[in-house]
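Chapter review. Work through the record for Prepilin type IV endopeptidase peptidase domain-containing protein before attempting the end-of-chapter questions.
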Amino acid sequence: MIILPFLAVILAHILCIITSITDIKNNKISNKLLIIFGIAGIGLNIAQYVLKTNIIWGAYFFNLTLVIIFSLLLYILHIWAAGDSKLLIILGILLPANYCMLAGKVVPWSVILVAFSFIFSFIYLLLESIWLFIHHEGNFSLSNVKLNFKNFLFAYIRNIIYISFALKIENFFAKDWMNQYSWVIFGINISIILLISSFELLRKKPIVIAVLLSSIAFSIFTSEWFFSTSRLKYYAVAIVIMLLRIMISEYNYKTIPTSEVKKGMILSSLTTIFMSKATYEGLPDISHEDMRSRLSAAEAESVVNWGTTKNGMKSVQIVRKMPYAIFILIGLVVYSIIWWMVN
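Structure tokens for Prepilin type IV endopeptidase peptidase domain-containing protein:
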């Protein structure tokens, strides 16, 4: 019965629309809402099993497992909030098995969806930064790149090592799939470039050296080396992305009155370093500027109260909030369009 998979897809899109709205308005994704849609997804799957619909359950559970692992990984690495990870897991339950198929082949739709969401969120940040630059609300300058050219160069070499190693592995284990879905692989690899700098572990020299040696060993084994025409586009894209990230970072912060600090906000490292010198109790630790440093209700209240003291700050710097549920929605819509076109 084709109506059941179709209904599941519709529910998945409705869930993403609702969570996008609540994430933007309230900085929150409702657990109750996720549970309701999760139960609906399980019910639809049971109905499809009982009615013996034409479903490749192996592909469904493969992607569901991948979704759970991927979501937990993004949460553990503090890239996503818990709500975003849970949303992706519920989508894994809801979306039918035939959504795992493109042109008759099983594909990791969750990886593709997340890749699209990362790319669109990056585009959003870029456009926002350009808007702020036009309105003179930042201090971006190419002189910043020149002053830090050495760090920029090392970071670029590090990115090339990682992306080259990833391309070799992809080409070795999924060459046919890469050739058929080169645009998907390109999107995934762009996401890898975007994510590399987010992992502190990947910036450590021993890890970079280990990956470089592994890449060289892999090249000796497969005769695939760093420089090939197919990789030049990634090396060029890496430079562009790094320059854009520098620009975006200049507009990553927002100054607000201390009295307006609320639960869930993330203070800048500079602000929390200043706070660390205060003796006021309940203030947050030094900020990592990621999901680990989201303020609790008690910490937000302490910051507000500290701001009213003699040595407190009347304004603080926070990391600009980006509600991520809407980018998951965009990623799902784009994947759905591709799915309908290909199938």
